[in-house]
Each structure stands twice: as structure tokens, then as C-alpha cells.
TrEMBL record:
It comes from Peteryoungia ipomoeae. Ligates lysine onto the cytidine present at position 34 of the AUA codon-specific tRNA(Ile) that contains the anticodon CAU, in an ATP-dependent manner. Cytidine is converted to lysidine, thus changing the amino acid specificity of the tRNA from methionine to isoleucine. This is tRNA(Ile)-lysidine synthase. InterPro entries: Rossmann-like_a/b/a_fold, TilS/TtcA_N, tRNA_Ile_lys_synt, tRNA_Ile_lys_synt_N. It is an enzyme of class 6 (ligase).
């Protein structure tokens, strides 16, 4: 088994004092690390160990810390101040980031996580940090996979690889997790032996949260199976990337063409059109991207596409909002016509339209993005694809009756919903192939 890049060096459990030097050694260049510290044992262990090991480090890494005050519990402000004092004693620059906006009634853990990463990313920008570092442990990893197993479609599903050691957030900030092979108890033991204390968050024991229930039940997942799932996911991503590079071509704004005669002979196709094949991995990613979705199609739907392709006849079908049209040995993909909605683009705002285009309104005028922008239609494009193209492109309108193009005052670019918000490091090769296909700036390089 070859371990891909951005992957823990060992599938065995590690101590805190082994994991941190291994992590520091894996950094490719001098790095400014912004450590996300809640004050709990994991992040205090992470920060104190990084601080200790960096005393003797001469490679020029820098340490910063930030605490998010979610304002969900009365004690949260005191806890953030406690972390501030902990950092001050060690001369580690620290910021408290406060989540001030109104809290949702449902989905609070997910909303809090979104807010936390947004605030940490803003802090990383303002402080000039190269990467954000979190204290996720092997226990968190096993809980995550335990929860995903309850919902997933069986062995081989990408989510079973768990959290990646490096994840790119908003195509801009790498989030690194050096403690994914370390048990929470090992961190606590290390802290006790150093006479260090931490804060216990009472919501970690609250059985209303699924994560807590999973933690308190027996899990059948282990580090070995996790590592194998991670390797499998990374290998599939690489195979899909090679397949896309070799076979997919963008022939108009968001219309792809695949030469099937060539694709079937692709070297990685051990079982052409099988679920484990490179084309299945590539086509499921392309279906999500072209359709503007942040998740891949379900297995059952993907099977229908693969079965059609195996039959060899012309066909037309939709999958994940993507229209697939086969004409002899060519397969065309574009966004289907259904479900395209207008979206307001207020003055100076940034919005994503249809999961496919990002717009920044640089004007002081309220605008709207509507389906039906101009499309140049080449003669080789089949009629159904051309009809969809006339609807699926964006046009910018003023809010009055008269519509007007304002391309100079509105900045627009492709948005690939599947990978642009959160990109697990396993899928980095796939993201790089998609950058080439969509002529985008390269994905920022990973610090480890
Ligand atoms: N309030 C906070 N401020 C700063 N960092 C935090 C905060 N809460 C969590 N973190 C960071 O996230 C890591 C994981 O924390 P925890 O497991 O409590 O969060 P979570 O809600 O499970 O996060 P995720 O859902 O992203 O896994 C912590 O070790 C820490 O690095």
C-alpha cells in the first residue's frame, strides 16, 4: 500500500510527542500556523506541544492562536479569556473571534462549525497565517466515520476515509490536523504529566448530539481500516484526474465533451464502466460539477449512467442536474434546463449562482442574475445540449424592466461546488485536473 501525499505517515496510533515532531517535519516550507484553540484538552495539548517543540526548531515556523467565542454558553467568554492568558504566558499571539450573528433554531452544531471556520479563515487572512491547525484526534475521526457509516451506501464510499489530515477551505486556507493518529486519552495523560489543565465543555457529554451518542457507543471502525479507506479514496482521485486529463474537453463555457472511443481504452479502466473504475469516479465528479452540486450522485443513479454507457447506444439522461447526451462515440455534458432560478445580487455583494458561478457586484446598484445568457453554439453540439445552453448560462440584469449587461462592473468566475467550499486533501489530484479543465488558477499548494 503506498501512502499518498497529505496523508499521515503511519497507520499506527501515535503519542502526542511523536505526532507533533512528525507534523513539523512534514511542513515543506517555513509556515505560520494559526492554531484553533477551544481550551479543551485536544487543542491545549496541540498548542502546548507545538510551542515546546518549536523552541528548538530553526526552520522559521511561527505560532499564532485563536479562540472562537460562539456565545452559546454563559462561560464561553471566560473560557476564551483563559486561553488568552495561557497564550500570553508563552508569548503566543492570540485573538478571540466572536460569533455575534443570530443563532439558528435547528442545525446548531453545523452552523457553529461553519461560523468557526469562517472566523478562523478571516483571522488567518488578517494575521498572514499560512495554515489553520486544529486538534481533531483519532477519537473525533472514529466518531466522524461512525456517523457516516450510519448513512452511507456501503464499503468504498468516499466518506469512510474520515477527515483528511489536510483540507482546503474556500480554495484559500489549508486546515491541518496533526493529531488524527493520537488518542484523546494519550493527550490528557501528556497534559497531566506536564501539570497542565484544560477546560471540559459540558456539551461534549450532551446525548442530544449524534456525535456524543456515537462516542458513547462501541465503534467497529479502527485506524487500519481508516487508513485503507483514505488510500483508496486518494488512489481513486488520482485515477479520476488522469481520466479527466486524457478524455474530457471543455468545448464551451460549461459544456464538456468526452471521446468515448478513447476513454474505453484508458489504461486505468480495469473494468470499464464498473463502479470502481476511473471513469465512474471521474463521471460522478463531473456530474456534480456541471450540475452545480456539492455532492456526488447516489450510487443507484450513477449505475443507470454506467449501464447506458455500457450498452453503447445513443442516449439522453440527467444526473445531479447534469444533462448527458451520447452521440455515437461522443458524450456531451451540460447543466440541465430545470431548476434554474434568478438570484438577486445586491450592490457590492458576492453571490454564488446555481452552484456554478461566483459573482462580485462591484457597483453600488442592486442587480440580478438570471438564466439565459448569450451562448455561442458550435455546429458539432447536439440540439438538446444547445437548447440547455440557451437557458443555463447566467446573465446580469438591472432590477428594472430593461436588462443590460454589466460585465465590466461585475466580476464573475466559475464555481465548482463539489470542491470549492471544502476540499479534502485526498481529492487534491482531482481538483488539479478540474483546474486545468476549467482554465482556473491552480489550487494553492498544500503545506504538508
Ligand atoms: N471555540 C473554538 N475555538 C477555536 N477552535 C475550536 C473551537 N472549537 C473547536 N475548535 C477546534 O476544532 C477542533 C475540534 O473540536 P471539536 O471536536 O469540539 O469540534 P467539532 O465541532 O467536532 O469540529 P468539527 O465538527 O469541525 O469536527 C478543536 O481541537 C479545535 O482545534
Amino acid at each position: 500500500m503506498t501512502l499518498p501525499a497529505a496523508f499521515p505517515a503511519t497507520p499506527a496510533e501515535m503519542s502526542l510527542d511523536a505526532a507533533i515532531p512528525a507534523f513539523l517535519a512534514s511542513l515543506k516550507a517555513p509556515t505560520t500556523l494559526l492554531v484553533a484553540v477551544s481550551g479543551g484538552s485536544d487543542s491545549i495539548g496541540l498548542l502546548s506541544s507545538l510551542h515546546d517543540h518549536l523552541q528548538a526548531d530553526t526552520r522559521g515556523h511561527r505560532l499564532l492562536a485563536a479562540t472562537v467565542d460562539h456565545q452559546l454558553r454563559r462561560e464561553s467568554c471566560d473560557e476564551a479569556n483563559w486561553v488568552r492568558a495561557f497564550c500570553a504566558q508563552r508569548n503566543i499571539p492570540h485573538q478571540v473571534l466572536t460569533w455575534t450573528s443570530e443563532k439558528p433554531k435547528t442545525g446548531l452544531p453545523a452552523a457553529a462549525r461553519e461560523a468557526r471556520y469562517r472566523l478562523l479563515a478571516q483571522a488567518a487572512d488578517s494575521l498572514g497565517a499560512t495554515a489553520i491547525v486544529t486538534g481533531h484526534t483519532l477519537d473525533d475521526q472514529l466518531e466522524t466515520v461512525g456517523m457516516r457509516m450510519a448513512r452511507t451506501e456501503g464499503a468504498g464510499a468516499p466518506g469512510l476515509a474520515g477527515m483528511a489530515p489536510a483540507t482546503l477551505y474556500e480554495r484559500r486556507h489549508w486546515i491541518l490536523r496533526p493529531l488524527l493518529s493520537v488518542r484523546r486519552q494519550a493527550i490528557r495523560d501528556a497534559l497531566i504529566s506536564r501539570n497542565l489543565v484544560w477546560i471540559d465543555d459540558p456539551s461534549n457529554e450532551d446525548r442530544r448530539y449524534e456525535r456524543v451518542r456515537v462516542r458513547q457507543s462501541q465503534s467497529s471502525v479502527d485506524l487500519q481500516s481508516l487508513t485503507e479507506a483514505g488510500c483508496l479514496r486518494a488512489e481513486r482521485s488520482e485515477a479520476a484526474a488522469r481520466w479527466i486529463d486524457a478524455n474530457a474537453e471543455r468545448i464551451a463555457d460549461i459544456v464538456l465533451r468526452i471521446d468515448l472511443a478513447k476513454a474505453i481504452e484508458f489504461p486505468a479502466s480495469t473494468s470499464p464502466w464498473g463502479h470502481d473504475s476511473a471513469e465512474a469516479a471521474a463521471l460522478s465528479a463531473l456530474a456534480a460539477i456541471v450540475g452545480g452540486k456539492s455532492f456526488r450522485p447516489a450510487n443507484e443513479a450513477l449505475t443507470r449512467l454506467l449501464d447506458q454507457l455500457a450498452e453503447g447506444r445513443n442516449f439522453r439522461m440527467t444526473l445531479s442536474g447534469t444533462l448527458f447526451v451520447r452521440r455515437r462515440s461522443e458524450l456531451f455534458l451540460t447543466r440541465e434546463r430545470r431548476g434554474l432560478l434568478p438570484l438577486s445580487l445586491p450592490a457590492h455583494s458576492e453571490r454564488i449562482w446555481d452552484g456554478r458561478y461566483f459573482f462580485h457586484n462591484l457597483t453600488s446598484e442592486d442587480l440580478q442574475i438570471a438564466p439565459g445568457g448569450e451562448a455561442k453554439i458550435a455546429p458539432e453540439i447536439p440540439g438538446t445540449i444547445a437548447a440547455a445552453m440557451r437557458q443555463n448560462r447566467p446573465q446580469i440584469q438591472t432590477l428594472g424592466t430593461e436588462s443590460e449587461r454589466r460585465s465590466s462592473a461585475v466580476h464573475g468566475r466559475f464555481h465548482l461546488a463539489l470542491i470549492d467550499h471544502i476540499l479534502p486533501g485526498f481529492d487534491l489530484p482531482l481538483a488539479q485536473a478540474l483546474d486545468r479543465l476549467f482554465d482556473r488558477e491552480a489550487t494553492p499548494f498544500c503545506p504538508i
